[in-house]
Amino acid sequence: MKSHLAFGAVAVLLGLMGMALSSPSHAQAPPLGTAGSFGVLAGTTVTNTNTPTIITGNVGVSPGSAVTGFPPGIVVGGTIHAADAVALQAQSDDTIAYLNLAGRPVTQDLTGQDLGGKTLIAGVYGYTSSAQLTGTLTLDGQGNPNSVFIIKIASGLTTASNSRINLINGAQGGNVFFQVGASATLGTTTAFTGDILALTSITLNTNAKIVCGAALARNGQVALDNNTITICHPTAASASSVLSSSASDNQRAVANAIDTFVKNGGTLPPGFENLLSFLSPSQLANAFTQLSGEAGTGAQQSGFQMMNSFLSLLANPFAENRGFAPERPLPRQPLIYKAPVYKAPVGTAPDSRRWSIWAAAYGGVGNINGDPGVGSTNLTTRAGGFATGLDYYVAPDTVVGFALAGGGTSWSLSAGLGGGRSDVFQAGLYASQQYGAAYLSGALAYASYWASTSRTVTVAGTDTLNASFNAQNFGGRLEGGYRLTSWAPFSVIPYAAVQAQSFWSPGYSESGSLGAPDPFALTYNAQTATLVRSELGSRFDQVFTQVDRSSVDLFGRAAWAHDWQSNPNLTATFIGLPTASFVVNGAAPPKNLALVTAGAEWRLRNGWSFMAKFDGELANGYDNYIGTARVRYLW
């Protein structure tokens, strides 16, 4: 009598343990449906020898109806269902799960290899014939509690006596599945972990136990002999909790978006389920980096670079010239402004030519280091174009003009995370006024970008995601300076400038190669980015008059710039997870930069001039180099 009471107490304790392990909200991989509540489910019969077998969970049979050996077998926390509607539905769900497992692509073929002595990480393992477990099989979760282990066996599964399955590093028995194409037999005293879904029969020899799992036979019997079977359901971990403490802001943003989707009742598509189920924390972090869609953030930076080049071309005080040397040497020839370069001495006739036309080519490349903490990667931008403009001298000291340009930009992220390109149209107005030794020049410009992005995601095969959109950019620059000539062998022109830009990109969506809707494709919100720059420094020039009265002007610049730029980020939403929005950050340029310029201009008396210059922007973790060549004719 005492032994029966003790046995009953143990059974109740096991039942409470099983209920504590359950988590109704968890979505198994694959979902077992109602079959998940069964410790034993058979197609023909359930038999138990005259032994105190303990089953935690339901016991069922369908379409057969025979359940024998209960008692002395005990069912804890469940009910026996013999050929009733509950058992019928459970068999239907078991069949769905079995076929789900059978359809999973194998990630590693283990045919002919004993499972004993192996350590497996999350994945789908296959046998084209039978499988044997002799000794210990270790399943390593690698720190991811959501790790799923699937072993697909074409025929039978047999375990030797005293075999066992160990779980380490967060692996959970409720995420272990054996899909058996024939029958499964557990040897005596085997300590098994996982759900066995067999096409035919399942036999547990004396004292074999399933410590966390179930015996689910579709067409045959389940035979028991003094066994213990305890169903369990794993505790699902959030995507953000799986990431390590070193995960970047971008990686956590993606994880939090997925978690929010699940908390709001969403069901993850298979692609996302597989990420959470089969990747280690470090692999998951890398996958989230790919999924973040950072490639889209490069559009604004390349656009700012393109507009910087255009504004510099329009408002550059070295850009204008009268195309000839004075009739007699001057003490100091002034800086070439957007106006006549000097006041002719008394007695010298002013130049009557008022019109000039010019054409220029410009282009450059920039590099911005990413921030590992933010999760941004190194960004390389390229921009270049061809421009032409027409000037008119309203007065000897005043010039106005307009310019049109066409070109393109491109950008790319390091580590193969994608990039983009655009075709660009630009238009601008500019003017300059000279006041003795001082000058004031300004420009307003507009640009339209026909942009496209492309990135490749390899977290579930190769998926190429593309998008296109039309962005707009407005910019302006105002610069003033004053020439000092008395204390240096060349002219020194201290100057100050302010420049502002606004870059607008519309909302747009990606399309992918996995079909529509692509689960990993993103929809981006409309975004307006701004850049305000102040400059303080000095320009330098020296004019050399030739015998033929042409002249060569050597010029340069050294300055400091401070940028107020809005963060290069975008708000994105997974098309496959409609409510999963997050902010992805791109590489942010520094706020303080050193500006340098070096160039030369050759001015002929007949009105032609040729100019080439090189501009550089330098800072810690940032460089940008721009070259410009221009030809002008004055008449």
Note down, in words, how this protein is organized.
The chain is mainly β. Helices cover 15% and strands 47% of the residues. The chain contains seven helices and 39 strands. The strands form five sheets. Strands 1, 3, 4, 6, 7, 8, 10, 13, 16, 18, 20 and 22 form a twelve-stranded parallel β-sheet that branches. A twelve-stranded antiparallel barrel has the order 23-24-25-26-27-28-29-33-34-37-38-39. A seven-stranded parallel β-sheet has the order 5-2-21-19-17-14-11, with no helix packed on it. A hairpin with a 5-residue loop joins β25 (398-413) and β26. The radius of gyration is 37 Å and the shape is rod-shaped. It starts with a helix and ends with a strand. The model is unreliable at 1-28 and 320-348 (pLDDT under 50).
> What structural class do helix, strand and pairing data support?
mainly beta
Q: Tell me, what's the shape?
A: rod-shaped
Q: What is the quaternary state of this protein?
A: single chain
Mean pLDDT: 89
**Sheet of most strands:** 12 strands, parallel
% residues in beta strands: over 45%
